[in-house]
């Protein structure tokens, strides 16, 4: 009668090696981002704030969109967690990052927006 227990090698998980190909990577600076989404994906537009003047000589701000990144919500959550960890590590090494005082949106939550859950 054959032994019903599988060999030890069959119980081990196989690891897949990954390689990151940076040959087509482009670096872009962004001073602006705009998230939006649907039920199935998150869309984040990135751009640059460009100071300008209106025809009346008043200061204005033009935003040049440069890139759009679309991802599913699982990847978006992984990105949010990873960014949080990266910022925390940076602040532990360098010190707190000063944030400008923003005005709460009209009728908004006054900065008490959604929290990232584990």
Helices, strands, pairings?
Blueprint: H1 8-11, E1 32-37, E2 41-53, E3 59-72, H2 73-94
Antiparallel strand pairs: 1-2, 2-3
**First-residue to last-residue Cα separation:** 49 Å
The arrangement of helices and strands along the chain is HEEEH
How much is the radius of gyration in Å? 23 Å
Task: Give a quick account of the main beta sheet: strands, pairing sense, barrel closure.
Answer: 3 strands, antiparallel
**Uncertain spans:** 107-111
Strand arrangement across the biggest beta sheet = 1-2-3
**What class do helices, strands and sheet pairing give?**
alpha+beta
Percent of residues in helices: 10-25%
Q: Which of globular, elongated, flat, extended, rod-shaped describes the shape?
A: elongated
Number of DSSP strands?
3
Provide the residue-averaged pLDDT. 84
Commentary on this structure:
This protein is an alpha+beta fold. It has a domain at 27-94. It has 2 helices and 3 strands; from the N terminus they run H-E-E-E-H. The chain has a 3-stranded antiparallel sheet. The longest helix is centred in the C-terminal third of the chain and has 22 residues, at 73-94. The radius of gyration is 23 Å and the shape is elongated. The termini are far apart.
